[in-house]
Each structure stands twice: as structure tokens, then as C-alpha cells.
From TrEMBL:
The organism of origin for this protein: Bacteroides pectinophilus CAG:437
PROSITE patterns listed in its UniProt record: ABC_TRANSPORTER_1, ABC_TRANSPORTER_2
Keywords: ATP-binding, Cell cycle, Cell division, Cell membrane, Membrane, Nucleotide-binding
Species classification: Bacteria, Bacillati, Bacillota, Clostridia, Eubacteriales
Protein's UniProt name: Cell division ATP-binding protein FtsE
GO MF annotation: an example: ATP binding
Amino acid sequence: MIILENVTKEYTSGTPALNGIDLRIEKGEFVFVVGNSGSGKSTLIKLLLKELDATSGKIYVNKKYLNKITRKRLPSLRRDIGVVFQDFRLLPDRNVYDNIAFAMKVVEAPSRIIRGRVLAMLSMVGLLDKYKSFPNELSGGEQQRVAIARALVNEPSILLCDEPTGNLDPENSWEIMKILDEINKRGTTVLVVTHNMEIVQAMKKRTITMNNGKIISDVEKGGYFYED
Ligand SMILES: Nc1ncnc2c1ncn2[C@@H]1O[C@H](COP(=O)(O)OP(=O)(O)OP(=O)(O)O)[C@@H](O)[C@H]1O
């Protein structure tokens, strides 16, 4: 569960990047966040990961009060949130298997558990046969599927995706969205920042529209108000 209460983020004094945001996302929801460039979408994601602190207001993620969370408890917050970016961010010198396993090694999972989980993730994203490939041997869509597998391997309850289809053609974009929908149906809360309005319209999910640091609409089933 994600709760923001009157959250403002100012990078420098002047126009805030987020301006008095109130938002509640329940466990198990699928939510799109749309809005023109500079409206505050990436800032929202950074606040949820506590990469940034809010200037004012309160943020809760899975009952953790982020304003007061100690440095020691940050890893446990971040383990519970998977993240996927537009540019995949895979390790270029590791193969697919190791890219996914790496996320488990850093949390010191036992190796017998790592193997089973990595293979299960690869199967979920349909890439079992590519486990030995290196990122530069994969298409963009395949690289993003690996990134999704890596984001989920530690079984986070929330998956944040910042423009996950920004570098992909329509066919691969749909493939990624189908996977995200399936992940959500299995119980993970999924939040997707996107500019792909065709997908937003077709998928009929809750859609939050941001403009100038404010939420200007929050609609069930794919309605939105958007001007680029
Ligand atoms: N590190 C920073 N320092 C100062 N201002 C910043 C910083 N990061 C973002 N901003 C500003 O905050 C506002 C919101 O930016 P943000 O990146 O959250 O927008 P966005 O909706 O994700 O945009 P896009 O769709 O282009 O990715 C913008 O006006 C941006 O210029």
C-alpha cells in the first residue's frame, strides 16, 4: 500500500516538482501515471524509493513511514519494491542468468534458492532459452523482460516502472504490458509511468494524470486528461 499525504517536493526554491500530492494506492492495484514532460512522474518514483526526501508531507509504503525510516531499514524498503527503467540498466558483462541472480546475491540469498528463483523468473518472462546470452545479444524487448525478471526475483510487493516501453516498438511494448498485467494478477502492486497513451487507453486500468506537480485526474479504467 502506498499513501502520500499533501506531499511537496522542491528541488530548488521556486516551482515545486510535486505540489501538495494526495494519493492512495491499495495493495494489488495496477495504476498508470501519465502527464507531460516535467510534470513530476519520475520525482514521485524517487520519493517512493526514498532516493529523495519530500520537502513536506507524509509518505507511507507498506506501512513504513518514509519520512522517519532509518538508513538501516532502507534496504528492507527497497527489497520490497522492484524497479524497471526505460533503459533496462542490465550489467553488460554478465549474462542473463547472472544479471537476475545478482539481485539475490546482494541480499545474501542461499545459492540453492537463487537457482530455482532465477529459473522461475526466466520462465515467467519467456526467456529460459536465453539464460546464457549477454545483454548485447538480446533485443530491446528481451532486455526489458530480463530487467523485469531481475526486479521481481526478490518477490517485492510493489513494482515501479518508469517508462518501461519508452525504447520499444509497439509489438514489444505490448509484450511487456502483458507481462506486467500477469504479474499484477499474481498479486503484485504495479505502478507504470508512461507516455504510451494507446496502451493506457486499451488496458483500462486506473490512470492518474499529473500536470505541473499536481494530480489533475485520477480515473478508474483508463480514462485520462492529457495534453503533451
Ligand atoms: N535533480 C533535479 N534538480 C532540479 N530540478 C529537477 C531535478 N529533477 C527534476 N527536476 C525538475 O522537477 C520537475 C519534475 O521532473 P520529473 O523528472 O519528475 O518529471 P517527469 O514527469 O518525470 O518528466 P518526463 O516525462 O520528461 O520524464 C521538472 O520541472 C524538472 O525540471
